[in-house]
Amino acid sequence: MTVLVTIGASPLAYATEAPEVSDTVENAASTPDAEAAPTEPVTSTEHAPPAADPVTEDVAATADADPATHGHEPGPRPTHGDPGPQPTETPAHPYPTPKPTHTDGPGPSPTVKPTHTPKPTHTPEPTTTPEPTHTPQPTHTPNPTHTPKPTHTPNPTHTPRPTHTPEPTHTPKPTHTPTATPTPTPTTHPSHPSTITVAKEWVVNGAAAVPDGEQLDGLEATLLLDGASAPWSTTQDGYSNGDTVTVSETTRVVGLELCEVTRSTIRGATIDGTVGLADPVDVTLAEGANNLTVTNEVECTARLQLAKTVNGSADVSGWTLSARGGDDALAFPGGTSGVEAEVTPEERYLLAEGGGDPRYVPFVDEAAAEGTTASWACERLDADGNTVPGYSDGRDGLVTVHTGHRVRCTALNQAATLRLVKTVDNSGGGIQQPDHWTLHIEPVDAVDGIDTVSAPGSVAGFAVTVRPVTDYYIWETAPPTLGYELIGPTCSDADGAVPVRPAADGRFIVSVPVGASVSCTFLNDDGPAVWRTAKTSNPPSGTVVRAGDVITYTLTATYVSGVEARDVLVVDDLSGLIGVADIIGDPTVTAGSVARDGSTFRWTIPVLTSTETLTFSVLVTATDAAELINSIVPSEAGPCELCRTVHTTVAEATTTTRRDPGAAARLATTGGQAQPMAALGLGLLALGAILADTRRRRFDRS
Hints:
Layout lengths: L1 E6 L2 E6 L7 H6 L3 H4 L18 H11 L12 E2 L6 E2 L106 E12 L5 E2 L7 E7 L2 E3 L5 E5 L3 E10 L5 E10 L5 E3 L4 E4 L3 E13 L1 E9 L8 E6 L15 E4 L4 E8 L5 E2 L13 E6 L5 E7 L4 E3 L5 E9 L1 E10 L12 E6 L9 E4 L5 E5 L4 E7 L6 E10 L2 E3 L2 E2 L5 E4 L5 E10 L3 E9 L11 E12 L3 E9 L7 E9 L3 E5 L2 E9 L2 E10 L5 E7 L7 E3 L1 E6 L13 H8 L3 H28 L1
Parallel strand pairs: 5-14, 15-23, 24-33, 34-42
Antiparallel strand pairs: 1-2, 3-4, 5-6, 5-9, 7-8, 7-10, 10-13, 11-12, 11-14, 15-17, 16-18, 18-22, 19-23, 20-21, 20-23, 24-27, 25-26, 25-28, 28-32, 29-30, 29-33, 31-32, 34-35, 35-40, 36-39, 36-41, 37-40, 38-39, 41-43
């Protein structure tokens, strides 16, 4: 007979071989008297059976109700160390209570020493009694007084093996078989290799994600696995499924002060959805490859600053600077030099300017595209305003500001300088100085805001800021000046001569290149003073005069050419008049002064610019035949054309009276008037003789 004892949740099978038991005993189990059959008293209380375990009862009930075994023939189950199957049904004949063998089980069963084993009132017959294929022999089989037949013994899925089964001193007829509490066995999983790969991608301003390595220069991130750095997108092995890896990162923005990492997330592998990576994330690895992706979201702006500079002294605040992008681009407000605003990254902006000093023109690079009206110098700036190498734009008047960059574009406006210089060459005797002339500059075509500039001439000259590549008139004026010839103007800059064109009105035209400084010199050279002298007389030279006649002499000094003649000296020789004539009064001059120096008159003229005269008269005193000669002393400075006059006299008769041939006739016609007239004439002759003698003596003394 086989007895199954349920311990805990699993039936404990005790398989033993027992001798045949009489039918009396078997039938007694079904009679009422058997219920009251006494058992051998047990005095020890320590063997008292414990109270019924409700858990055990529930498990047993569950086992009875198991549809997998109830009403069907259960299969054999081997016990630990027993290669044969374990029968699950009890034989029809009673069998002594066996000493249980060791079977698989979670732990020891409690030691039960029952104090009383009541007879069961009824032991139902099992519906089937399968024959065991093998009944192992127990190590010891006690002889119980009665072993009830179970109504049903389920086939458990697992039979725990008690670690110790106590041997009772006797075998009572049990009313209850306690069930041992099982000790669960820890669940173990097989170890399988795992790997982890973490990729990186960047999203800038909501654009499509790009993998690490293709992001903006300056966006950097370092992967950390369990706090140690690891390369992105590189498979890391040495892990097992179930391992936990802490994933984190560090980010840096270098040189992109207008960019900020606003969010970091991680997804993939065993992560449910997408989670933030502001703090480290623990990832439990699954078997095999675990692929994760970390996404950094970055917000960047771009800024543009416009500046103005000039190569002169103009006020840069006079210009208005502006930039214009496409229809969808951020608008640039514009303003004066230094204006700055946010612009759309990677958008092409057209740069422009307005107003300002009209003498300045925008700089245009020689390599600029055709049609460019102004070239700008654009450079990238760092947070401190320093230039970042490697960026250049604006040559064609357009600029693109890259994402996260700050760019400054500067417009250069250039003027030119025109200097007018005045020099004078007075080697010919001129005395004029440069400031005797006034120099002038004026645009050929009128330009609003540009006026005529005039200044006195000087050797240093005066400089004027002019609009480059623009025609200007240049000329000089002066009071009427004799003898100076204008040479020039001649113009030049650092590279050599600059062309000068004569204008129809006597002025000159010059154009100054962009950024150049041109100097134009007006030279005035004095020509040598040229003048002449001459002498005339009344009566003219060659006339016969008599004592008592008056001769008037006139000397002229005449400017001919060159500068004005200065300190002109005219010398008149009087030696040819001595003894034959007397000077009447003092000479008179129209310019300068005259002085008697022995037998000469010295006439000095400070400045001779026209014709000047000296006049004096003499009284003829010669009674004998003589010549009255007056001449100018020749001079290289003032050569003489008519330098000499000559008059002659005849001797007077002392005994013969000279008579007019027509006197008789005149006297005849006058009648009685002839005698008085003759007496008057004689008287006048006598008086004239006296005066002539007096004059001769005075002239000789002088």
